[in-house]
Structures are given as structure tokens and as C-alpha cells.
Structure prediction request, 130 residues.
Amino acid sequence: MGSLQQKMAVSNARRAHKTPSKKPNKIGTFVYVAGLVGDLTDDTYYYEVLRRFAKRERDLRKLGYSVINPMTLVKRGTAWHEAMRKCILALCKCTYISPLPDVTKSKGGMIEMQLAEQLKITILIPSKIN
Prediction:
């Protein structure tokens, strides 16, 4: 049995044909952004993480999606398990999940990706949308 990253790559390849090829017609199509958050006690790192998530949020909004950004959903300093509970509830309301490149380095991000796969939430990567 291969690593989780290998399984995700295979899953992503299988699901790639499901990625929308144009902007959605309906307002309210939610996309959850998943990625590495890590220890936010260092201000420099915290602002870098905010920028990465905000960039993906902007890219998705330009395409017409409503975005759930965990960096704006959860307050800095929230315990990991409490943050994950909030994030998982938000993810369950989404049609899509948009992983950042570093998602495989994140325990929480991998939980979100696995849950999304089980719930048939489609992976959406803005650069792959025409």
C-alpha cells in the first residue's frame, strides 16, 4: 500500500476530469481552502500564511466562487482541535475544496482532504480552470 501522498495523487488524477471548465453560474457555490497553517506564534510566519490563503481566496473569488478561508474562520491562538472542529463543519458545507501546494505537509490539511474525498467534495485548483 502506497503513501497517503501517492494515494492523493492518484485520486486527484482520477478526479481531474471533474474540475469545472468555466465560471459557476450560481452564487453560493462554496470552496474551502486547505493548506498548511502550523504554529502561528511567530508573527512573520503568521503573516506569510495569511497571504498564501488570501491569494487563493482572491483567485477563487475572481472566478465567481464563494470562499471559506480557515485563516479568517478561526482566530489566532485557537487550540488545534477546536480549529479543526470549526473547519470540518465549514468544509461539509462546500461543493469544492481547493488545496494549497503545501497541504500534504499539514496534519489538519490531510484530514480535510481525506474527508473531502469521502464526502465526494471535488478538488478545485484555479490554475486548471479555463
